[in-house]
Amino acid sequence: KAGVTQTPRYLIKTRGQQVTLSCSPISGHRSVSWYQQTPGQGLQFLFEYFSETQRNKGNFPGRFSGRQFSNSRSEMNVSTLELGDSALYLCASSLTPDRHSGANVLTFGAGSRLTVL
Amino acid sequence: AQSVTQLDSQVPVFEEAPVELRCNYSSSVSVYLFWYVQYPNQGLQLLLKYLSGSTLVKGINGFEAEFNKSQTSFHLRKPSVHISDTAEYFCAVSDGNTPLVFGKGTRLSVIA
């Protein structure tokens, strides 16, 4: 069974540009979550999608947006990039968002490392 | 809101020695607790989880953790570490309906 696939793995952008990151969940998983990881702030929750609907959103500015497609693949977009957006962006998938079930743990991808110059 | 505190940012330990990585969480009616490990240039891998039942949870790679409700702790332990255990370890909590909240991580360095 293929894992969570994130593309691209590495990318470099300049301030003011925008970026789109892609996440393909494990087959059959319908819930996708995104996290931003930085050395100073650790792992911070960005969004959670389930069946193409955003269920939760973290405390990030409107420059950060996302969506989920009917095949459960998800994308996130960051517009007007700032230096502080440099981070590892992690995507995770699960069957559903329900954390009560032991079968429903988050499985993470390897991440997309964004560097903003 | 849920929160997690990992009390040590770095833990150096000699190979074959025991290790404990500490995690405390904010109290809630229901808590579901997780430990993840991150190796360099990789995503997070689940080590173990506590959902209900026995307070002693065993995970992969010889790790175990104990849920202590009165002390709101979920410390991770391994009786004998290997060089390959060098990684960053994250404790996380959810109330079952909300996204996982992670601690800031503990970097475990195993010294030969």
Structural class of chain B: mainly beta
Distance between the termini of chain A: 37 Å
Largest sheet of chain B: 6 strands, mixed
Number of helices of chain B: 0
Kindly provide the radius of gyration of chain B, computed on alpha-carbon positions and rounded to a whole number of angstroms: 13 Å
Number of strands of chain B: 12
Shape of chain B: globular
Low-confidence stretches of chain A: none
Summarize model confidence as the mean pLDDT of chain A: 94
- Number of beta-strand segments of chain A: 11
Walk me through this protein's architecture:
The complex is a heterodimer of chains A (117) and B (112). With 117 residues, chain A is mostly beta strands. Helices cover 0% and strands 51% of the residues of chain A. Chain A has strands at 5-7, 10-13, 19-24, 31-38, 42-50, 53-57, 64-68, 74-78, 87-94, 107-108, 112-116. In chain A, the strands form two sheets. In chain A, strands 2, 4, 5, 6, 9, 10 and 11 form a seven-stranded mixed sheet that branches. In chain A, a hairpin with a 5-residue loop joins strand 7 (64-68) and strand 8 (74-78). The model of chain A has no long low-confidence stretch (mean pLDDT 94). Chain B is mainly β and 112 residues long. In chain B, 0% of the residues lie in helices and 52% in strands. Chain B has no helices and twelve strands. Chain B has strands at 4-6, 10-14, 19-21, 23-25, 32-38, 44-50, 56-58, 64-68, 73-78, 87-94, 101-102, 106-111. In chain B, the strands form three sheets. In chain B, strands 2, 5, 6, 10, 11 and 12 form a six-stranded mixed sheet that branches. In chain B, strands 3-9-8-7 form a four-stranded antiparallel sheet, with no helix packed on it. In chain B, strand 10 and strand 11 form a beta hairpin. The N and C termini of chain B lie far apart (41 Å). Chains A and B meet through strand 5 and strand 10 of A and strand 5, strand 6 and strand 11 of B.
